[in-house]
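Key idea: predict the complex, not the pieces.
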Amino acid sequence: MPNADMVQNTPVQKNDSAGHGGHAQPSGSADRKGCMQTESSAARGRWQHRETVNQANAPHGRGGHSISERTTHHACSVSDSGAPTPGPDNNDVTAATITATAGSAATAITATTDTTTATAASANITAATDTAAASTAATTASLTTTSPLAVPRAVCDVCPRHCRLAPGRRGACFVRSCHADGLIYCDTYGVSSGFAIDPIEKKPLNHFLPGTTALSFGTAGCNSACQFCQNWELSAARSWSRLGSHASPVDIAEAAASRGARSVAFTYNDPIVFAEYAIDTADACRERGVHPIAVSAGYMTACAARDFYAHMDAANIDLKGFTEDFYRRVTGTHLAAVLRTIEIACATPDCWVELTTLLIPGLNDDDAQLHAECAWIREHVGPDVPLHFSAFHPAFRMMDEPPTPPGTLTRARRIALDEGLHFVYTGNVRDAEGATTYCPGCGEALVARDWFRVTLDRLSAPEGDGRCPTCGQTIPGVWK
Ligand code: SF4
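Result:
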């Protein structure tokens, strides 16, 4: 059962969108030293496959890279995972080592890249100002690693990093590891960094049960490396010391229901790195009439995204910028994979999706980038997907950057509306107009908010029916 004293009721005035917004991590976590190594089947990685090393074909006595037993738990199809095929979605630190050396004698070395490399790569990502430098460092590290080539690797297909792990090794996210049975597990299954009761508007979700609350929780670790992360103490954690007491999926669902929370939100760190825990909790929530919500950066494989969002009733996905250069340098991830996730999530039946872009002065707030982003949203997922522009506040490795001026948010919102998006909001600032839902048909104000407090609601049941009371236009969202 989530410890009652870990549940806080004091919201802060920033949203929760992964890696940047809320810094709302509860402070009531008890210390929990050391790593937990669970081998329960529930914690077993859903998306992974095995990779073997064909020594008979090995050049110069090195193992050849032979793709393998793609048979284990919930393995991605080859086309989905893209593990052996370099491409825009796996062109990251780990995959880059594969790409750089595929088809050569060095393939054997890179094929056995293990978590020593992955961890080094992760450290390099967070330390480096340029992910290209991190990739180079990772490649160098892999080439100089003495690898036990006879040991098959488990390949994690959760995110485009596709970490290749020998038993005892950890992925770049730190919280998924290969156990003695040769399978990858989610080591934070069943433990949380703490719980908080938040307004749903703080996720942020403006078209999903406005005025209700969500029981929010996260774990530790992350597969992104955002230099502006506001939850870096959890996301960049390299120990379990920030995690609190155990809480089973059923415990969490019942805690939410007993506190009157309509939803449970997986947030603070990216839930894809604890996806098995989040999915089991989501299922337990649905059985009790509680809605599961994911707040994520969307950096995951297609097969993981399809499975993950099928278990969610709502999601907020970060679209952190709209150039590959920004994604690579500032987040250590890649834009194409995130765009694919957004398309998958938006196409998932019964999963309501909203998007968030944190605007950082001089990095992702120019008119051209904003026009391109909004045009992509309109053309690929439609103008009815709500978009939140949030204000940046200096944090983590970007303490010297200035906060976002309110005028930047207003300009971005105007660009988005001009591009044809119907529902555009500003966040992390007090802005009555940017916090209001207007009817795209007649312009009537339908839901008004003051920070996270709903001050007007003409859409939600029982008075509302999800349609504009003035012109009758249906407003997309979940209103009861
Ligand atoms: S989720 Fe973690 S272990 Fe899996 S590929 Fe991504 S960084 Fe590696």
